[in-house]
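Q: I'm building a small set of examples for a reading group on sequence design. Run inverse folding on the following structure and report the sequence directly after it, with nothing in between.
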């Protein structure tokens, strides 16, 4: 696998939320049917609709209200990855404010900060960014303006300026341009859960001398998740959610990575355990957060193995451990095929953050906070009223940076594809609806 896995997960999430946007829009928005009208007297027919053509109703765009009218603030955290082997990935936090000027057109200004590592000498590079964005509401353009829509898709385009510095070196300035999407889901009155994939082209003058990049411009990717808070209470609407639920799960896991290929599959298997909570919004759509722990064996030293100096090594297996948190969109696709709610078959996609520890007494332990991505399938069956059992195969993408080999002074970018299979229980609160 390559680092493009994160990009593929992002595209899958975008397609999933866009599909939900159209589906939910069709369920919640009324439609107007207008018949053809006979035209006489030389009047143009371009202003008339075709017979039985569906025209979505636009809700009124709220004027007035002062500075806070149709405004919002947002906080987004992301995994930041420059598309260059010389740099590692790193965490990134953005705080922004924006305003919708028209039903489909808005602006946003943001301030971001983060860090990553220069793999050449393992030094930490810090950066601060300012950005200005134009926002286009695709959902309003396609399906009519509706601030109370559960799922919306916005496109982003803008410019920025980056200030980066290394240790006590003088800071370096550089311009940037970016293009991305803002995928929002209304989870509480006035609060949207936001997924924000963003591609950026940055000027990096600091590393131009030793990096083979065109005029110092390096592409970068931000995979962000956060919350958007609407400042205009007129756009809050009612609570979109329904029942809360809780989950407990456990199972087996192992990794597939460049650093874990010298150990047999059965010897590498470890365990994973997680507790979660979430909320249903429709029969087909819910949000779940999880926190947990997992470990497996990633390296084995066999009888007769030696180090780079020819010294015999003591046989043994070494653990790779992960403490993680996840926030996932859960899309139940089974109602598209079958009626009833006893069974479900869902796709789960979302970000994963955590801390990685790889034990190895013959080199420096790998300790790394990571921001990655995760995806899973879930087959679920209701056993009792409000109680269900589920089976969940999963793959998580865990990026990190570590020594290229034991005597190296340089780092190299790696990732673990952590594959797991878990069995779990779900308890759903609230009024339970009987199967039809």
């Amino acid at each position: 696998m390559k680092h493009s896995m994160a990009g593929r997960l992002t595209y899958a999430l975008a397609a999933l939320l866009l599909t939900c946007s159209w589906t939910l829009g069709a369920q919640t928005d009324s439609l107007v049917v207008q018949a053809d009208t006979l035209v006489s007297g030389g009047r143009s027919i371009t202003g008339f609709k075709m017979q039985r053509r569906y025209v979505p109703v636009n809700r009124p765009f709220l004027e007035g209200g002062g500075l806070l009218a149709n405004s919002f603030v947002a906080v987004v955290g992301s995994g930041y990855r420059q598309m260059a082997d010389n740099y590692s990935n790193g965490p990134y936090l953005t705080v922004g404010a924006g305003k919708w000027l028209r039903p489909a057109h808005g602006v946003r200004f943001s301030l971001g900060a983060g860090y990553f590592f220069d793999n050449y000498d393992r030094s930490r590079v810090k950066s601060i960014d300012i950005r200005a964005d134009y926002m286009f509401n695709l959902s309003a353009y396609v399906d009519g303006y509706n601030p109370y829509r559960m799922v919306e898709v916005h496109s982003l385009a803008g410019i920025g300026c980056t200030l980066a510095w290394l240790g006590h070196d003088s800071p370096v300035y550089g311009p940037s341009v970016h293009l991305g999407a803002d995928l929002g889901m209304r989870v509480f009155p006035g609060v949207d859960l936001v997924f924000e994939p963003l591609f950026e082209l940055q000027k990096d003058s600091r590393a131009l001398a030793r990096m083979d990049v065109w005029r110092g411009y390096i592409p970068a990717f931000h995979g962000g998740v956060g919350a958007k808070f609407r400042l205009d209470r007129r756009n809050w609407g009612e609570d979109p959610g329904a029942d809360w639920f809780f989950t407990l799960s456990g199972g087996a896991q192992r990794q597939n990575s460049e650093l874990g290929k010298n150990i047999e599959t059965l010897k590498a298997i470890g365990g994973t355990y997680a507790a979660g909570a979430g909320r249903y919004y429709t029969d087909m759509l819910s949000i779940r957060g999880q926190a947990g722990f997992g470990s497996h064996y990633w390296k084995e030293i066999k009888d007769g193995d030696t180090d780079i100096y020819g010294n015999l090594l003591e046989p043994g297996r070494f653990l790779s451990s992960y403490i993680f948190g996840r926030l996932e969109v859960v899309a139940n696709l089974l109602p598209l095929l079958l009626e009833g709610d006893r069974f479900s078959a869902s796709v789960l996609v979302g970000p994963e953050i955590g801390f990685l520890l790889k034990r190895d007494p013959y080199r420096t332990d790998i300790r790394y906070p990571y921001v990655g991505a995760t995806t899973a399938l879930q087959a679920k069956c209701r056993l009792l009223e409000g109680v269900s059992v589920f089976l969940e195969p999963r793959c998580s993408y865990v990026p990190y940076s570590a020594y290229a080999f034991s005597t190296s002074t340089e780092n190299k970018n790696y990732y673990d594809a952590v594959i797991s299979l878990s069995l779990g229980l779900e308890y759903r609160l609230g009024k339970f609806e009987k199967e039809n």
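The longest strand covers residues 366-384.
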